[in-house]
Amino acid sequence: MAKLIDHTLLKLDATEEQVKTLCEEARTEKFATVCVRLGFVEQAVELLKGSDVGVACVVGFHEGTHSTEDKVNEAKAAIAAGATELDIVLNWPLLQTQPPSYAAILSELRALRAAAPSPAVLKLIFETSQLSPQQIVAATALAAAAGLDCVKTSTGFCGRGASVQDVRLMKGALEELQRRGWEGAGKMFVKASGGVRSVGELKRVVAVGAGRIGTSSGVKIVREARGEGVDGQAASGY
């Protein structure tokens, strides 16, 4: 279960001491990554040396409406600082224009892929609470066309977080693209982020296709799974 979790700290007022604690927890619990803002990437990389915990950095967070140039520069800086994964916010208002600005979105995503080539893992954050089902499917197709690795539900800073319906739709869209011959779609995964705070919530989104979970409640979740209380001690009557 721990290897499904990106252990996340994205508050604007986060401190170096909090990032230190985040990394210590991630090392202890063997989470997939820690996910931080650009200013903390170097610190996280240093603290996690010798572990198999990756460092993810958000790009264009959290509105997604930054210029392509700014996003590309942020992506390059994160990779240079040692980030192994980038969680990039889609410029989702471009999906809501009439007609939708698909070409502009695809151009930006391809520029980001070029700036952070494989083996860097690129995840595209949709902000699903703001999008229709049709727009979610379109965003999934654009991410696949640009060669990204993952589609992600939300930032956790705008509207509701992940829902079972969102994850099921995104996973289904990837499977349909693969069925139609989009080979890259078959290698992509779905990340559910925002509002996943318990073992039950984690299991529900994994059951419908989530391959990764973004949460600031990772320690709470794994302790709950082990039958421990919040202090790490055995929970009475659990």
Automatic annotation (TrEMBL):
The keyword Disulfide bond does not apply. The keyword tRNA processing does not apply. It is an enzyme of class 4 (lyase). InterPro entries: Aldolase_TIM (IPR013785), DeoC (IPR011343), DeoC/FbaB/LacD_aldolase (IPR002915), DeoC_typeI (IPR028581). Keywords: Cytoplasm, Lyase, Schiff base. Belongs to the DeoC/FbaB aldolase family. DeoC type 1 subfamily. This is deoxyribose-phosphate aldolase. It comes from Phyllosticta citribraziliensis. The lineage of its organism: Eukaryota, Fungi, Dikarya, Ascomycota, Pezizomycotina.
